[in-house]
Design brief:
The structure holds two protein chains of two kinds. By secondary structure, chain A is an alpha+beta fold. Chain A has two helices and eight strands, in the order H-E-E-E-E-E-E-E-H-E. In chain A, the strands form two sheets. Chain A has a five-stranded antiparallel sheet with strand order 1-2-3-6-7, sandwiched between helices. In chain A, a hairpin with a 5-residue loop joins strand 6 and strand 7. Chain B is 31% helix and 40% strand. Classes of the chains: A alpha+beta, B alpha+beta.
């Protein structure tokens, strides 16, 4: 399973609405494996969306369990196929960066608690509630499926667009 | 060849069009705006930019063009050549945090806080101050972002500045920013 190159903006795929996954076949499972390998290969990476590795499909992976911010509250490894947010509550600002837009970070406001439905890698319909950093990561990755980048969501310029800040 | 780089500073009485006037000159000369930060300072609009040129380029051409702009549009600019050493970016090592300081205005707030930080090798990356409140009760607000040196925690930084609370009679807060890569 190869680690794939993360596409960087202005690659056109990153601004495209992805299409639904209709059937979980070997091709999709291979894509899931590639997403996982790619996520694990990036230092501190906690999620990758299919369009970031060149597949315009509604599929992303998230795992914040190894990160300092997500260690306390997480669902481990999540493979989210056709995910949908059913409910979002609260809001908090976090300084986000994205592997598809290197060397740039900005403050983005996201729901602090989300309720989510999705299909897992076995084709089972699932629902879960996520909060904190995991919820932020899920919302960020799901944005990719709609062709939305964190730059489209910068909340404030005053303390927002600071360049070249180090990630953790 | 290393591209020539220049620091351009413009501070002028605010009006619509300062950025466009400046950008027009730079475009005409073939200069590229690299990093820039522009904001209102009181009634002035202030721009600081680093610009580069793809080919060897004399500073005097920028100076001349901005002199014309001063005569025609009133903008006041300052140009400086940047050395190769200056344009290199050295990535910071420690934790990023936001430090807020506010209280009744008095001399020395900026100095005392930043001297304390500098002495411990805390590196400020962004800072702004505002004098607000009323004439009889002026309030001073300073917000800054800084990288702590390796080994210094946010709690250490808080402790380091705690003594200034009483001395300056200000509120001081230190919060981790925790940029996340997603």
């Amino acid at each position: 399973m190869p680690v794939r190159t993360i596409l960087q903006f202005p690659h056109p795929l990153l601004k495209k609405m992805c299409r639904r996954v209709e059937r979980i076949d070997s091709e999709i499972l291979e894509l899931v494996a590639d997403l996982l390998d790619t996520m694990r290969s990036g230092p501190g990476s906690v999620g990758v969306a299919a369009p970031q590795i060149g597949a315009s499909l509604r599929l992303c992976v998230v795992d914040v369990s190894m990160s300092k911010l997500g260690r306390e509250s997480n669902h481990g490894l999540l493979v989210l196929i056709n995910p949908e947010i059913l409910l979002g509550e609260g809001s908090a600002t976090m300084r986000e960066g994205c592997m598809s837009i290197p060397d740039y970070t900005g403050d983005v406001e996201r729901s602090t608690l989300i309720r989510l439905s999705y299909t897992d890698a076995h084709g089972e319909q699932q629902e879960l509630e996520s909060m904190g950093f995991e919820a932020v990561a899920i919302q960020h990755e799901m944005d990719h499926l709609d062709g939305v980048l964190f730059l489209d969501r910068i909340a404030s310029l005053k303390s927002g667009l600071f360049r070249r800040k180090r990630y953790r | 060849m290393i591209k020539p780089h220049f620091a351009v500073t413009v501070i002028s009485k605010d009006r619509p069009g300062i950025v466009a006037d400046t950008a027009e000159v730079l475009l005409r000369l073939g200069c590229n705006v690299e990093d820039s930060s522009c904001t209102m300072l009181g009634g002035d609009f202030a721009m600081i930019l680093t610009v580069s040129h793809p080919k060897p380029f004399p500073k005097s051409r920028l100076v001349d063009e901005f002199r014309h702009l001063h005569e025609s549009a009133g903008l006041v600019a300052h140009i400086r050549s940047l050395s190769e050493e200056e344009i290199k970016l050295s990535p910071p090592a420690g934790e990023l945090c936001l430090i807020s300081v506010y209280g009744a205005d008095r001399p020395g707030i900026v100095y005392r806080v930043t001297r304390e930080l500098a002495d411990r090798r805390v590196s400020i990356t962004d800072l702004n101050t505002r004098l607000v409140g009323t004439e009889t009760e002026p309030l001073y607000v300073m917000m800054l972002e800084a990288y702590l040196p390796e080994g210094m925690s946010v709690e250490d930084a808080e402790l380091l500045l705690a003594g200034l609370r009483g001395e300056l009679n200000v509120e001081i807060g230190v919060r981790a920013i925790n940029p996340v890569s997603l």
